[in-house]
């Protein structure tokens, strides 16, 4: 069998099949599993990339029935039961790979409301590379402000706009607040980083719309304590080199001069979802998600599973359900698919996939988080501690857990962020292009 | 006063002056101090970049008399006592900075025997970026070999050439040996990484020429146990996309087909050294080092100090001395310059700089190292443990010490390397260009 994608869904599927009598090929274009919920911490210098990524080959090194193939998936031939591949390293590698069972977890990426030209200015933090790029931009903005003697030109360097107030946007805004008000407080001699403006722009009328309104209000208050200005009911209608234009419901618009815009609004599913939709006739929604059957297979293709945030799942009543695009959903779906495959080997039936919602967590900053656990609403230190333990627990690899625990303990006690480096092979060119 | 360069020399100078009644501006084009002796560990996936780099601003955040300026130094006007700057972040910042006292620690870079065109193929591991680039190439070579079905085309992917058997070259070759024979041993299903050929090419007749011959022989044996073939008495005369050409003393030459060549031979001083030589009439040697007076000042410019591996130091007899290009030399020179400046404030004389050689250390792999400590020759586990403790001790920041200690303990016990990621903003383009 072939599993596409070493994200949360694909990884769980392979982990739960590694001791089953199956031969698994895990295809990914990257050689590591990324703990995506913490990429924003790389973007703000709190963690080092190697601490939230783990080599896929290392995970399965003792499982001779699991093979990792570093390649990009470009298409499918479902009748021939083949996946079409493009090489990632050198020109080598097979052009196709055959499967008896296929699991597709292609994930999603940020969409820019159809304005792909915004991408260059408004960086996102989904991949490790984009997180490093955001880190370079954030830190370089403070450096540029320190060097800029003209007040009018300095201000846009000290204005940070985060678009989208879902968990990632809230976390990013909160972390920039901490960076400015706490970590960098004593670092400069000309500017006072605490004067930085951090704006969180959200189209809805509150932050964290997937949480109960009372927790949204608590999160907004925590953000404001960190110096973040929450602008709800505002839509971004333009992103230029010098800032963003936001419009409110009344039709009036406002330009915000900012040199650092971070995008955390709206995702679109992997193009593999659309391809699977076209090949099987399964419905594809406007966000590019393909609709799978209640058992996560494609219609008429019981040997093809799809999972994670690239799918909607048809319910028993036929209605498609959009589960939140979070790790627990993908992980449960991965484990479900593994179980379904093991059941098939024993000719057992598997009941439809059911998502067990264990709760919803978002962190804002030091001892500030909100948690909605089966109706139990938590905020402040207790929610933050829960968030902390859950995230350390789910990190792959004991070493990473320990390293992240130390980084966080140290950040908490010293208010420092050790990895605030302007670095990466592109650091110089990146800064040049934006100056 | 102005200190150029936040390397080992410049950093020590500022550290030892931060409580003195002076105003210091530390100029660096990067925002961090890099623990360069461990960059090769980033290159082989043993450490994460953030673990061997530390933000300069964080080091001096509590010292209001120390200002960090992120800019590139492009020249000097010694009569006007000014340093000429070029911006690194955005277009902002001053074009010049005035000094009463100047300390220049510009460091060095790898030279390619006058063949700068070799640089693209033969990567080095001096900067954080080049180390990440080498890591990507090393790991991608194994991935490419796994995917390559043609034996003749696979072999160059599994052939690694390290040029230069000084400490860095020996460490790199040893680490690639460990990577192939130990860390990656179980990672692949088609290739056996243990069949990788690792060649260490050295022009001299032994490795580690700065060590006593008996330790060179021990190091060579340790390397061979890790599967490294040591080719001494061989000079690289060509580096192409497909490999290197080496010539021996007899005039015959040999082509080695390899897709991964790492350069660790021959450094040239920062161009700032040549500039200072031209401006003051101080001698500049073929490696670009400027000759400073016994008190590390430039001739006729007692207010300008230069230090580190961009200088030779004139001895009492007038003969220039080349100290080894290692951290302890630069650190002692940095502390010396700080003391000289404090002495001047009190109108005291400072005796000439004297290097206290505390010993010479090089590591090859697990429990394999050599140490020459004031004539005491150590090898094996005891030398390795000494190396380990010295390197952890000298890392900047308690957090980094702890993180590196954990990474190493974990690598030692599990034989793993957690950060073997093919990543960085350029990862895809880099692989594309080389395929």
What characteristics describe this protein?
2 domains; homodimer; 5-stranded parallel beta sheet; globular; FAD/NAD(P)-binding domain; 8-stranded mixed beta sheet
Please give the domain count of chain A.
2
How many H/I helices of chain A? Answer: 12
Mind describing the biggest β-sheet of chain A?
8 strands, mixed
Radius of gyration of chain A, CA atoms, in whole angstroms: 22 Å
Mean pLDDT of chain A: 91
> Which bin fits the share of residues in helices of chain A?
25-40%
Strand content of chain A: 25-35%
The span between the termini of chain A is 49 Å
Query: What is the name of the CATH architecture of the largest domain in chain A?
Result: 3-Layer(bba) Sandwich
Largest interface: A-B, 76 and 75 residues
Looking across the biggest beta sheet of chain A, what order are the strands in?
7-6-5-2-1-8-21-20
Identify low-pLDDT runs of chain A: none
Oligomer: homodimer
């Amino acid at each position: 069998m072939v599993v596409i994608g070493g994200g949360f869904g694909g990884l769980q599927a392979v982990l739960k099949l590694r001791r089953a009598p199956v031969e698994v090929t895990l295809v990914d274009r990257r050689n590591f599993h990324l703990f995506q919920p913490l990429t924003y911490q790389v973007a703000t210098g709190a963690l080092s990339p190697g601490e939230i990524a783990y080599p896929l080959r290392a995970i399965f090194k003792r499982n001779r029935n699991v093979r990792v193939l570093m390649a990009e998936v470009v298409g499918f031939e479902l009748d021939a039961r083949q996946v079409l591949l493009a090489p990632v390293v050198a020109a080598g590698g097979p052009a196709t790979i055959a499967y008896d069972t296929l699991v597709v977890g292609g994930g999603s990426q940020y969409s820019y409301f159809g304005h792909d030209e915004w991408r260059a200015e408004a960086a996102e933090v989904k991949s490790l590379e984009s997180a490093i790029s955001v880190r370079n931009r954030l830190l370089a903005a403070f450096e540029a402000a320190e060097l800029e003697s003209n007040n009018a030109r300095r201000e846009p360097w000290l204005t940070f706009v985060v678009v989208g107030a879902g968990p990632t946007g809230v976390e990013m805004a909160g972390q920039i607040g901490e960076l400015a008000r706490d970590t960098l407080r004593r670092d400069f001699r000309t500017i006072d980083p605490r004067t930085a403006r951090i704006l969180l722009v959200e189209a809805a009328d509150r932050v964290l719309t997937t949480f109960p309104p009372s927790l949204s209000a608590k999160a907004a208050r925590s953000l404001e304590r960190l110096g973040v200005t929450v602008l709800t009911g505002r839509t971004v209608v333009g992103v230029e080199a010098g800032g963003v234009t936001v419009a409110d419901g009344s039709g009036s618009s406002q330009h915000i001069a900012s040199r650092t815009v971070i995008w955390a609004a709206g995702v679109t599913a992997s193009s593999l979802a659309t391809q699977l939709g076209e090949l099987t006739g399964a419905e594809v929604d406007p966000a590019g998600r393909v609709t799978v059957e209640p058992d996560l297979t494609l219609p008429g293709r019981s040997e093809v599973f799809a999972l994670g945030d690239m799918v909607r799942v048809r319910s028993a009543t036929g209605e498609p359900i959009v589960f939140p695009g979070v790790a627990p959903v993908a992980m449960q779906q991965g484990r479900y698919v593994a179980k379904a495959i093991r059941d098939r080997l024993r000719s057992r039936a598997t009941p439809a996939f059911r998502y067990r919602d264990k709760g919803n967590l978002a962190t804002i900053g030091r001892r500030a988080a909100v948690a909605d656990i089966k109706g139990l609403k938590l905020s402040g230190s207790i929610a933050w501690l829960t968030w902390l333990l859950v995230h350390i627990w789910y990190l792959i690899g004991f070493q990473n857990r320990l390293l992240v625990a130390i980084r966080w303990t140290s950040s908490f006690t010293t208010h420092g962020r050790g990895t605030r480096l302007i670095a990466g092979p592109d650091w110089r060119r990146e800064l040049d292009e934006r100056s």
